Amino acid sequence: MTRFRVEGKGRVEHAEPVNFTFDGRTYTGLRGDTVASALLANGVHLIGRSFKYHRPRGTVTAGSEEPNALISTSRGKGRYEPNTRATVQELREGLVAESQNRWPSLNFDIGAVNDKAYMLFSAGFYYKTFMWPKSFWNKVYEPIIRAAAGLGVSPGEEDPDRYSSRYLHTDILVIGAGPAGIAAAKSAAQSGARVTLVDENREIGGALLSDPRVKIDDIGAWDWLSAQLVELEELGVRLMMHTTAIGYYHQNMVGLCEKLTDHLDELPEGAPRERLWRVRAGQVVLAQGALEKPLVFDGNDRPGVMLAGSAQTYLNRYGVRVGDEAVVVTSHDSAWYGAFDLADAGTEITAIVDTRDTPRADLAREAERRGIRLFAGHTVTGTAGRLRVKSVRVNPVRDGRVGAAVTVRCDCLLMCGGWTPSLHLFSHTKGSLKWDESQNAYLPDHRSEACHIAGAGRGLWSFEAALNDGDVAGRAAAEAAGFEISDHARFAVAQDRPGTGVTHKELPTDRDAGKARAFIDFQNDVTAKDIRLAVREGMRSIEHVKRYTTNGMATDQGKMSNINGLMIAADALGEAPPRVGLTTFRPPYTPTTFGAFAGYHRGATFELTRRTTIDSWAEEHGAVFEPVAQWRRAWYFPKVGESMDAAVLRECTATRNSVGIFDASTLGKIEVAGPDAAEFMNRMYTNPWTKLAPGRTRYGLLLGEDGFIRDDGVIGRITDDLFHVTTTTGGAARVLNMMEDYLQTEWPDLTVWLTSMTEHWAVVALNGPNARKVLEPLVEGLDISHDAFPHMSVADCKVSGLPARLFRLSFTGELGFEINVPARHGPTLWKALMEAGAAHDICPYGTEAMHVLRAEKGYIIVGQDTDGTVTPEDAGLNWAIGKKKPDFVGKRSLARPDLVMPGRKQLVGLITENGAKLEEGAQIVLDPNQPKPMKMVGHVTSSYRSAALGHPIAMALIEGGRDLMGDIVHVPLPGVTHRARITDTNFYDPEGARLQV
Amino acid sequence: MLLIHCPYCEETLPEAEFAYAGEAHIDRPADPSALSDEEWRDYLFIRSNVKGPHFERWRHVHGCARFFNAVRDTVSDKFMTTYKAGDPRPDLTAEEAAQ
Do A886 and B33 touch (CB under 8 A)? Predict the structure, then answer.
């Protein structure tokens, strides 16, 4: 039995101890505990150090709004998580927990010197302190700030857990399984609707779990909850516990994060750790309750100072007294009930300090009956105690004047500044909030989604009111979802605990308010003074105050601090709170793991990988792959011990000297068919197509309407009304989309059908002087001699017995064929060609050799040598434009003033004088001795070593480049400036003789 | 994730099936060569960028693959209506009244 555990009390299993460690020391808690409740049962309040001032901090809440009690948890390799809320993490056997943000130890932390120097760390201190000298920025300030910033330590190992994701469709989603949510789910389900009820806790009940003495319809609260569990199941309600609604999106889509294993002693084999649900709900009922506010006074952050309602929760739900001697300070009736429960459980309530002059008479009588000293109309002006609160200063307030202090001894101080309706999810939908003068709270106003808010979320404070309101909301949701509704259930609650209160800015003090350490945002260490300073320094908008002070910007998103910050900012601005307004809440409601968002999208399933049918051959033969769009393509085929450079040079040489074989299956392929196919091609592509005879092919150039190059590829005319269009690998989907766009919306009068054939055909390119010798014996039904089947021809035939569409074309400058066969025959064709080519030392080559071979010929790659601002003229491709055509996509733009302006960047060749290979992307200058910043006239787009030429080559876009043929330009790189001569881009066989064999 | 009604499939389906395709009702000029540089610039680049109901094109790219038009309120990000390509701009009075 631990010191502060109350025998038999709470919903924990007193017979089931659970061992865990905190900062290396072993503790014992009970099944059903959270880490926080187990530590409190052992008398441990101090649990961490604060972010900025490294002040000792203790658990302050009992829920997911906790700002202080952040720990790191681990359970073996890779299963480490920082910034876990100790108030949420359920105890499991062997759990390893560590405190954070302290060095060398939690009790003695060097960083606490920041606390003594707090005057330096006021609002906006980053902006003020680290400005000068400028040279200190990169080397001094930033490393120090980065080292000091952030809570916890990022995991350093790969997460071995799996995360899953699912969709769910439901008629009605009820968020929050407290009294309002339970009542709503029941009444909605009684109508026959499919109802889903979610709650972040391990069991239903919400605030009822902390108030066992309440009686609903003459049944004790906890018995009533047991009965509800049965009823909900009978009604078919889908109940999801450990499930947090993290975001509320358009059209009633709600994101849920379900935690599946963090609370289990043993990890089930293969079970996902978390599951992300995307729920589409017909109607949503928000029954998220309310969050208690702290009071703002000097020293309100010491370990032992906590929310009164949370102390009540620890007592009634976990059977833990949070101390032996408690002082309660409150501006709301609710804290009185907690004080009575604690007093009845054996904690001495030394005093109740109520800021209101006249507490409710029945409460005062109850306090008197228990012998509790009452300070009505008093304030709290300070606390003492280093690692745990040991006393509190209490002062009378009369007519706004603060009188003399008395010091009251305590080992815990329970505060309550009223309650804030939890409307975060409602705010995600841009639902508007309205300030309620009587409650000093924001309540839901205009809804933008099909949702209903019930219970404390709209300011109803008693159990009876919440239950009946939940029932109404459930029925309203069912009716709106089209179901027939039953009669209103009437809940009667005995020993209910209704209450009211007032909302304060910081409490008045008899001391220098400028020196008060009165915290608003505990996690980001923002004090009342910081807010006032921000306003004095000119911040007027609450959004600016928030960013300047970082109030509400911590991982708790200001769940505790928001309204207190607003009250103080409004006071400093001399405005009413509703005129100042709230900052925006954004998803997620509570911190959510990256794993949950990533789900299945990690490792091999991060993105789909497209593979050609020949891919497995390449893999078996040792290819190194590179990603190209979504494809993985064979990059080069190294022999054992061979470097990439050596492999690529070997592949290039083999192709130029004999024959190379290349998997070109990833090329985009689109069939353009129909009586108007030629007219459609004329309008889409720059080239003329009318006179292209069936059986012939042409290089096609596609522009955007803005005149810039979008794509290119060889296009064959198969018959009068059928074109076989090829596109770049990455551009296939884009080109088809563009074609469909024009066809469907601009020229619906054309009779044309477009079909993607990319995955229908496997394509093998055969290039080199011996290409025909390899291919010819395999071809049936076609004479492929040079005269009968000249360069730029296409025909259907059989190759190696397979139905084939054969192109004679070249992307290497050598005699070339591209053999298309139905995709399933790709490997058969490839192997047949490898076999037939063996006599000619046929060499498989990858995309890198393909790039080199095409660059030696000056063939561009769209997206590498062009960048979306390159016209046909810039790229030297004006020959591909059908000058006589009245119109094609992009034609008009080619006459725009900027596109005909002299001095545009043009594609040229570059050869370095010193034989160095330039870096792709390197900038080019005309005069290397000019002062910086230099005038950059262009950049290198492609650069390779060339086996055929014996020296590296490059292509570059250079302003007015074609007028500078033969000139020297300069390429400054770190440590060296290369001289390079501007040349034509066609480096190899410029006459094209090797194509005509 | 939005739900979008495809006027061809006559089904309301998740946004992931659709692709945005720019402002609607901008016809490609019949004879671009007859346009001045300024008129052609306006056709290419000048868009209404409205706050409120925006007429725009979408494509049901992972469905029927048809382009269609929609009216979406750029403030609330809600679709007011969708209609087939080539249909005239719908009268929004009823939709606006509903909002």
Answer: yes
